[in-house]
Amino acid sequence: MNAQVVLLALCTGLGLGCLLAAVRALVAAAALWARGRRVVGRVTAHTAAGRRRGGLVVFSDHLGRDLVLDPGPFGPWCGLPPVGGSVPVVYARERPTHARLWTSRALLAPAFGWFLSATLAFGTGAATAGWAG
Description:
α1 (about 5-35) runs antiparallel to α2 (about 105-130). The protein is elongated. It has helices at about 5-35, 105-130; strands spanning about 35-45, 55-60, 65-70, 85-90, 95-100. It is α+β, with helices and mostly antiparallel strands. It is built from two helices and five strands. About 45% of the residues lie in helices and about 25% in strands. A five-stranded antiparallel beta sheet has the order 3-2-1-4-5, covered by helices on one side.
């Protein structure tokens, strides 16, 4: 088998997998936008022993339970205000532990990353096969 054909098949498979993940992330964001419950959370600081920057978001679900959302290390880039501020949070009614920030950047960032990965994989496959320039 030709090495270019194998690499093209691998890049195409990876690209299709990333594209499927991107569509799934978009569907999840659309479902949260359409049917998600929106609440307001409060940004609190990490523990003093914690090394990560940013904050945690504390919010109450529809049953009155206090839950903590960790937006991760990229929270400030996804629209997380400074500690003490309030931020909208959205979650599916049956899964409040899978909440997300209610900002366009936080909802669409996973889909954008998967689309970018799919584009790179397809582009690598096309360049390897000699289709590009």
